[in-house]
Design goal:
By secondary structure, the chain is of the alpha/beta class. It is 29% helix and 22% strand. The strands form six sheets. Strands 8-9-7-10-11-6-12 form a seven-stranded parallel sheet, with helices on both faces.
Length: 624
């Protein structure tokens, strides 16, 4: 008896289901699709899933191996297999690779492992009677309205926690799958949910260890009224009675898997999962993403009335008056007059960003990858792309001059300024190299790393030291990301806080959207530009990167272009390439024009590409 199985491995996309023989002695009944089995693969034994029967397999009997064991583990449901097929088809990976990305590893032996200690976490979820009433009314309308996808705006982090607590109270007739972006956020919500719903909450924490994660995964399928709290890795959790799929902090970049295949976004998989189960999709954040905002089938609730004072400080006027310090004079005066906790946000590490020669304009770059080196307070230069470190240059290697000057701004420079200007206030820096906060500081200088730090006070003042650095990036999504990151940082403040944006471009769309707390100010012109340039979400884009020798890849890219036009309708598709990227890499960009139902044709073509072509069906950036 022959069956096709799917080894739970990162197999290339050209590898389909593998055929094995199952002996009648293993079981009295035939294993159904989704059954866990153990099979020999090369020189080892691996876990696999039964995919289908294949009695007509045209394979010599001598080349077919027997399965080793039928495991006594609850089988995957048809919906779980369908979700894996969706990921494999949409993101051009093998079905085995899709399963590997979401299924837990089976522990080889039972080991009792301690889960994360949540008893010491005290999360503030109190938002007041009026705020509770507003959230309750918004949640009631979202659960009984016609729209199957709903966006719920929240003003503070405490408010978002309170929203999910209310949702868990209301969803008592089925399961609620709550997807969070990071392990930090998972534990933050787990502390609040387990305190109130200890008998219903199932926490899928990947840092708890293999055995604990496996046990929590298996228990999820046996509890029809459970609250399943997980990161994107648990999207295929065995939900048997799913009523609501909830996506927390929808614009957080951690929802996107960009470092390895499959390069998916949790929002897309969650939407398919909700459709598969007939469930509602609830998302929340300070502002919606552009992809969600332009979708006509999504009900977006209006943002709550903003009570924060939002100020725009023009740095051009400060420089003209002779002030070249990191903070404007009015911001220094404000911090001296108001002694509440304050956050100075600058998403740049180090002390200076550029070292250049004033005589010949030579600039100091990384010898390994060519990126700009960053000066740190310790006196060394570091590359934040490839982690190369080197000492500072004293003589220009191009003209042998000594007129070298460092410029730019970083968190370490701002920290030094604060300790000098405010010696009576405790100052702490939070970035990737310094994030252990042992005391409750008065002044915090931080990068986006602060979004993963707990036990911080709610800030009464937030100052964006150099807002322009967020949206002046070589990425077509830079302005959208700048708005979303800024609003997530603002959520760390009190509802009545003062928020200041220091900028050289006070009339920029991002600045005006933040000042008015109206994302439409940016999204409306941004969407018009993307429609003109055929950029997502107005068009579907696939980025292809080749691995190998550049000359051979260039010839292969030309051949693939011809094959692509013969396989697809040329009026619906546009292919650009071969393109030359950094380090002599070769790539191509495939665009599917809007208004054409040819996405399935494109996906079938991508599945036929050689394995040494890396595919990103929803690229974060178009840089090769």
């Amino acid at each position: 008896m022959l069956i096709d199985v799917l080894p739970i491995l990162r197999l290339p996309r050209s590898v389909g289901p593998l055929t094995y023989r199952i002996q009648d002695t293993h079981s009295g009944t035939a294993p159904k699709p989704g059954t866990w089995v153990s099979v020999p693969f090369r020189r080892r034994t691996v876990d696999a899933l039964v995919y289908r029967w294949n009695p007509a397999a045209m394979i010599p009997a001598s080349k077919i191996r027997d399965i080793a064991e039928v495991l006594s583990i609850p089988a995957l449901t048809a919906r779980q297999l369908r979700c894996a097929e969706f990921v494999a088809q949409t993101y051009a990976v093998s079905l085995s690779h899709a399963l590997y990305s979401f299924l837990p590893s089976r522990p080889k032996r039972t080991v009792k492992q301690a889960s994360a200690d949540l008893s010491q976490r005290t999360e503030r979820c109190t938002i007041g009677a009026s705020g509770q009433k507003a959230l309750d009314a918004m949640l009631d309308e979202s659960m009984h309205g016609q729209a199957t996808t709903v966006f719920l705006p929240t003003a503070t982090r405490s408010e978002s926690i309170a929203l999910w607590l209310l949702a868990a109270t209301r969803i008592a007739d089925g399961q609620m799958l709550l997807i969070v972006p990071t392990v930090f956020r998972l534990r933050e919500l787990a502390a609040a949910l387990t305190k109130r719903f200890s008998d219903r909450t199932v926490v899928l924490d990947p840092d708890d260890g293999v055995s604990a994660y496996w046990t929590a995964w298996q228990s999820a399928g046996t509890r029809p009224h459970a609250i399943l709290l997980t990161t994107k890795r648990g999207l295929m959790a065995p939900a048997s009675n799913l009523r609501y799929v909830c996506l927390d902090t929808e614009t957080d970049p951690s929802h996107r898997q960009s470092g390895q295949n499959p390069r998916y976004h949790a929002r897309a998989v969650a939407a398919f999962l909700a459709q598969l189960h007939g469930a509602r999709l609830l998302t929340t954040d300070a502002v919606p993403s552009l992809a969600l905002a332009q979708h006509h089938g999504v009900h977006i609730f209006p943002s709550p009335r903003e009570r924060r004072a939002r100020l725009v400080v023009n740095l051009s006027h400060e420089r003209a008056s002779g002030n070249f310090s990191p903070l404007a004079d009015r911001m220094v005066a404000h911090l001296r007059a108001h002694h509440g906790p304050a956050l100075l946000f600058l998403n740049r590490k180090g002390s200076a960003r550029i070292l250049r020669c004033l005589d010949c304009s030579w600039s100091f770059v990384c010898p390994t990858c060519g990126a700009s080196l960053v000066l740190h307070a310790s006196g060394h230069y570091a590359c934040h792309r490839c982690r190369t470190q080197t000492t500072a240059q004293l003589v220009c290697p191009a003209c042998h001059g000594t007129s070298l000057k460092s410029s730019g701004i970083g968190c370490e420079q701002v920290e030094h300024f604060c300790k000098t200007a405010f010696p009576d206030r405790a100052t702490t820096r939070i970035d990737a190299e310094s994030f252990d906060v042992k005391e409750r500081p008065d002044l915090v200088v931080a990068t986006e790393k602060i979004l993963t730090v707990s036990n911080l006070p709610e800030f009464s003042t937030i100052i964006f030291v150099a807002l322009d650095q967020l949206f002046h990036q070589p990425d077509y999504r830079a302005q959208e990301h700048a708005l979303q990151l800024s609003e997530r940082v603002i959520q760390l403040s009190l509802p009545t806080a003062t928020v200041a944006f220091q900028t050289y471009n006070p009339d920029h769309d991002v600045v005006r959207a933040l000042e008015r707390h109206a994302y439409e100010t940016l999204y409306t012109p941004e969407l018009a530009i993307r429609r003109q340039l055929l950029l997502p979400p107005a068009a579907h884009i696939v980025l292809l990167r080749g691995k190998g020798k550049p000359d051979a890849l260039r010839e292969e890219a030309a051949a693939l272009t011809k094959k692509f036009h013969s396989a697809c309708l040329s009026k619906d598709f546009r292919i650009e390439g071969p393109l030359l990227g950094k380090n002599q890499s070769i790539g191509m960009i495939v665009r599917l024009l809007p208004g054409h139902g040819q996405l399935a044709t494109l996906q079938r073509f991508l599945q036929t590409l050689p394995d040494h072509w890396l595919l990103d069906p929803d690229p974060e950036s178009l840089l090769l």
